[in-house]
Design the sequence.
């Protein structure tokens, strides 16, 4: 893995963990439920910083492609959300959720390992 992808992945993982905590700790503990403004203030800035710079590194890694970065980021976020919901909230994984997780993992793998230059684009096919 290249350095930019590693940094982007690390920042997106931390950002997604913080975002999960900001939105869902209120359903795990009465303490967090009764302190919404504290929760918002505690998690907002570090979450935003992780997503901002993680996104920057991700778009740069994918040669300025917003779509590739978005799909990769979506897949990582979906997988992390599922695992955190399972381990922290004890929310089970249904067959439907497991299939969605496999699809999300597939999206991540396609974005990282599919060499776009190796396959001709539709535009190139039309102009030949």
Sequence:
């Amino acid at each position: 893995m290249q350095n930019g992808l590693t940094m982007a992945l690390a920042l997106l993982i931390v950002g997604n963990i913080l975002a999960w905590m900001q939105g869902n700790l209120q359903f795990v503990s009465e303490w967090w439920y009764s302190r919404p403004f504290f929760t918002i203030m505690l998690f907002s800035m570090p979450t935003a910083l992780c997503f901002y710079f993680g996104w920057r590194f991700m778009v740069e890694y994918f040669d300025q492609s917003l779509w590739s970065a978005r799909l990769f980021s979506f897949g990582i976020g979906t997988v992390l959300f599922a695992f955190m919901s399972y381990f922290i909230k004890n929310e089970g994984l249904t067959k439907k959720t497991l299939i969605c997780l496999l699809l999300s993992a597939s999206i991540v793998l396609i974005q990282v390992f599919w060499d776009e230059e190796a396959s001709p684009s539709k535009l190139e096919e039309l102009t030949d």
The chain has a mean pLDDT of 88. Helices lie at 3-24, 30-33, 36-61, 66-89, 95-113, 122-127. The chain is about 80% helix and 0% strand. The longest helix spans residues 36-61.
